[in-house]
């Protein structure tokens, strides 16, 4: 049996096909070259590489837009005495037919692209240096293409809408009536229409030039979009100008703070005698602080002093218009907790008290029924 098994094994081996001959030196070299070309790891589509190859630019475009129009200078679009607006979120919109590629064909490199840009803005309406309203919206640019020229860039239309013109999130258009806008929202949208096209068009022009430079360089591995933006801003001098403007703004802000501190110091140094008496004399039956130019910063110290007065029956804060709801809150809270136990009259006429303070005083009256609170007539 053993001899028969050995004979069967020899017969099976003999029936196998002969092994292939070793490859020639030329064939081995060609196989090595093909392997290096198709496995280069540079992210390029491994098509017929001499005749046509391409690299997707969509991520580069999105990163460039974010670095240049959101990160740089806080996304500032424009700022003047009345308005300020910034870009908060931005992305390229490639839709179903949009695309962006860096192409190599027969040794030449060129960029082909067609896409839109969508970004959200947030802005403020100002009056006398104070913000009186804030608003948001959306801006669309469509049909940015590699065949565009300077004239197309200079006249590129922007579709600008406010948040009130969009249905609530999660609901389809027509399901919920769109709300009426506040006046300041309309004003900011009109400011966007007037002031934002020029800087936005300039950025799109810079993006297209950046894509042209990529094609001129013809590199198979793309540089970081952030580095491209930084180099562009440095070359144009914009980065330096922003740095100078930022430093000037910081110096002006520091000077303004110091001026305010100086003025506040003078005001506190020359406080009205009745104000000083309220802070120092816990035996006053009538605490009269009308027309004392009280400020919110004065209220904390005043409340601490009034807690020590067990005999006062009247607290008159009339004609201190800087004393607003936030400043009144600690005073009303102290009274609700039993401060000034003999108090009968609290005069808040001529202060900055609004419906918020009126509601707080309703709660105070429930706890201190003997207190009469006086407000301006509505």
Task: Give structural notes.
Helix 3 crosses helix 7 (225-236), helix 10 runs parallel beside helix 11 and helix 11 (325-336) runs parallel beside helix 12. It is built from twelve helices and eleven strands. The chain is of the alpha/beta class. Strands 1, 2, 3, 4, 5, 6 and 7 form a seven-stranded antiparallel sheet that branches. Strands 8-9-10-11 form a four-stranded parallel sheet. The chain has helices spanning 2-15, 25-38, 58-71, 150-154, 183-195, 197-217, 225-236, 238-269, 273-280, 296-306, 325-336, 355-367, and strands spanning 53-56, 76-79, 83-93, 99-105, 108-127, 130-145, 159-162, 286-288, 314-316, 345-347, 372-374. It is elongated.
Question: Would you summarize the structure shown here?
Answer:
This protein has 378 residues and is of the alpha/beta class.
| Overall average residue pLDDT | 83
Q: Please give the radius of gyration in angstroms.
A: 37 Å
How would a crystallographer describe the biggest sheet?
7 strands, antiparallel
**Overall helicity:** 40-55%
General form: elongated
Count of DSSP H/I helices: 12
Q: Spans with pLDDT under 50 lasting ≥5 residues?
A: 26-41
How many strand units?
11
Distance between the termini: 119 Å
User: Which percent range describes the beta-strand content?
Assistant: 15-25%
Summing up helix and strand content along with how strands pair, one would put the structural category as alpha/beta
Q: What are the secondary-structure elements, in order, as H or E?
A: HHEHEEEEEHEHHHHHEHEHEHE
